[in-house]
Amino acid sequence: MASPAWLRLPRLETLFTRTLLLGWVLAQVAGATGTPVRAYNLTWKSTNFKTILEWEPKPVNYVYTVQISAGTGDWKGKCFYTTDTECDLTDEIVQDVQQTYSARVLSLLPRDLDTTGSARDPVLQNAPKFIPYLETKLGQPTIQSLEQVGTKLNVTVQDARTLVRRNNTFLSLRDVFGKDLSYILYYWKAESTGKKTAKTDTNEFLIDVDKGTDYCFSVQAVIPYRTTNQKSPESLIECTSQEKSVFKEMFFIVGAVVFVVIIIIIIILSLSLYKCRKARGGQNGKEHSPLNVA
Q: Which of 1, 12, 102, 190 has its CA 20 to 30 A from that of 27?
């Protein structure tokens, strides 16, 4: 005789509960023994060719190793058996910043937790392809000098240094990108908000301004042909000061006048000293001359 439905329900609930409990126990055992999890969200972070690969998640009882390959070359290991979720690959990519790089993150058991005694195939995840020359972000530029003389404003931009080397010397952004690198100058009157722009393929700007008017400005690095990471952040804002310019001009004028006066005084004193010595010499000559005998 078949059992009533109401008698079968407790058995089904008991079986479901046991299944959940078994799953929980297996999950705890897997976490305790260190089951590698495939890395995800692999992301390149690069500014002025300082390049770091980041990923998730934080490992629990397993470790990561990173591998990188240039073009179709062999894989090279980096950041071995690490529990970090980032790896600095700068020293590899600066060897050829126009190369296409591949990278992957291997999830594996550390040697002291691998109790099987045999090598296991690691769980790996590939990162997107990366071309440093096209994708590294441009860092914030700095203004090296500025000078406003009359109606001309001269602004000089200082190139950022990179970790790319040539002949044991760190190269600047200009050294690496050459004419591909441009700068934009944003400038406006100090009492106004209307901005004007100027562009240059060098590191210097020479623009026309109103005489006796203070100006504020900032600069921005740009690589026009890029589709991503085309522009850098703008530099800190700098402003001219006509009061300082006037003081500077007066300082040079006063300095020039003082210099001329000192030169004149030195010449007068030298002439006076020369005449005194000459007069004394004539007098001494008369005193030592022989007497005339009649």
A: 12
Cis peptide before 128 (omega within 30 of 0): no
Classify the C-alpha dihedral 242-243-244-247 as positive or negative. positive
Q: How far is CA 192 from CA 17, 149, 188, 199, 253, in A?
A: 73, 20, 7, 21, 32
3-class DSSP state for residue 24?
A: helix
What are the CA-CA distances from residue 260 to residues 160, 264, 267, 272 (Å)?
A: 43, 6, 11, 18
Question: Are residues 162 and 176 in contact, defined by beta-carbon separation less than 8 angstroms?
Answer: yes
Structure token digits, residue 122: 């690691």
User: Which residues are registered as beta bridge partners of 158?
Assistant: 142
What distance lies between CA 159 and its chain's CA centroid?
10
Contacts of 19 (CB under 8 A, 6+ apart): none
Helix, strand, or coil (residue 154): strand
Q: Measured between alpha carbons, how far is 135 from 43 in angstroms, rounded to an integer? A: 12
Q: Residue 206: beta bridge partners?
A: 154
Angle at 39 between CA 164 and CA 119, to 5 degrees: 100
Distance CA 222, CA 218 (A): 13
Residue with tokens 């297996």: 26
What integer best gives the mean pLDDT of the chain? 82
Q: Give tens-digit pLDDT for 21-80.
A: 554 444 344 445 568 999 999 999 999 999 999 999 999 999 999 999 998 779 999 999
- Report the chain's terminal Cα–Cα distance, integer Å: 183
- Cα Rg, the chain, nearest whole Å: 39
For the stretch 108-126, pLDDT in tens is: 987 654 445 455 678 999 9
